[in-house]
Amino acid sequence: MLIGVPKEIKNNENRVGLTPAGVAELRKHGHTVYVQATAGLGSGFQDAEYQQAGAELLPTIEDVYATAEMIIKVKEPIQQEYALIKEGQLLFTYFHFASSEELTHAMLERKAVCLAYETVELPSRALPLLIPMSEVAGRMAPQEGAKYLEKPLKGRGILLGGVPGVKPAHVLVLGGGIVGTQAAKIAAGLGAQVTIMDISLNRLRELDDIMPKNVSTVYSNEYNIREAIKTADLIVGAVLIPGAKAPHLITRDMLKDMKPGTVLVDVAVDQGGCIETCRPTTHEDPTFIIDEVVHYCVANMPGAVPYTSTLALTNATLPYAVKLANQGWRVACLLNEDLQKGLNVVNGEVVYKGVADAWGLPLASVESVLKPMPTPVA
């Protein structure tokens, strides 16, 4: 298969879809890999490393899209890329369709095959291609929150861990999944007093067993959230519904109950956000203030630590990329139910329920798009 790795052009996105080691593995299976020149520089990988691994360098993003049968990326295509996508071309990347109606319609119009990292799902319901970036974003959330709690950055002027004789900050984490667990772990390690909320009692029991003593668990409902935000200094939104919009657990009217300088970090912003007042921001301009509450809503948080993130992502995506390249996307998805769940948009049809529900679009069955294409009659 002809595989293309374009340079990411989203604002301050320094990750790359494939490491030189990933190129070498695909080459070992007989595939040709085209990498756009300088695509890996932001993550610390030189063009020469890709060439040594067996990649062919192409000078422009247009060349990569025009040549490849499968595109391996990190972030969803942005508007400048839409016209480059060919009908039937396989795109293997993060899409988060439920947060962008424009992107959804663009991919439908291009009749691309969109296999989304974030909805590949194991029988255990784990999301193997979302987990590594969730781990990175979760660990970054208290780090970024601690920074924006500083007074020069309009925060409350509180040191997350406090000092002897002074209470530490109170961190509220909404969601006990991968992001929430990692956020709570780092915040607790920095010395904060942490409350983690979830709707699963079983998950709260697990967290209660494994977390240190400065982490408490509370069942998540509107009443408990409204009470907790009154004393929170940093609130981390860490709620995920795979492939669908995140629910708004913190609404606009709740901001009035927060202390001035409270910091909100909404890690779920690329799925619409679980804080109503959040909108996607960039690393270049990461925050805004509403009602004296600081909102940090960067939609590609792991892009700030691209070396770590690219290695972690390729570790997870490469085995699936090899299957797709070796077998073709139809056969690979027929043989691997986890990959099949990654299909969101195929040849002009939505095949993932969360996406169809988000934008009121008709839902086609996955089985219908996995049928082999008819052989042309000579």
UniProtKB/TrEMBL annotation:
Gene Ontology cellular component list: plasma membrane
A Pfam cross-reference name: AlaDh_PNT_C
UniProt cross-references to CDD domains, sorted A to Z: L-AlaDH
Enzyme class: oxidoreductase
Residues at the catalytic site: H96 (proton donor/acceptor), D270 (proton donor/acceptor)
UniProt keyword annotation of NAD present: yes
The Alanine dehydrogenase/pyridine nucleotide transhydrogenase N-terminal domain, residue ranges: 4-137
GO molecular function: alanine dehydrogenase activity; nucleotide binding
Superkingdom of origin: Bacteria
Record-linked Gene3D superfamilies: NAD(P)-binding Rossmann-like Domain
Keywords: NAD, Nucleotide-binding, Oxidoreductase
GO BP, sorted A to Z: L-alanine catabolic process
Catalytic activity annotation: L-alanine + NAD(+) + H2O = pyruvate + NH4(+) + NADH + H(+)
UniProt domain Alanine dehydrogenase/pyridine nucleotide transhydrogenase NAD(H)-binding: residue ranges: 149-297
Protein residues bound to substrate: R15, K75
UniProt entry tagged with the keyword Nucleotide-binding: yes
Similarity annotation: Belongs to the AlaDH/PNT family.
NCBIfam families: alaDH
Protein name as it appears in the record: Alanine dehydrogenase
Organism, as annotated: Hymenobacter aerilatus
Phylogenetic lineage: Bacteria, Pseudomonadati, Bacteroidota, Cytophagia, Cytophagales
Gene that this sequence comes from: ald
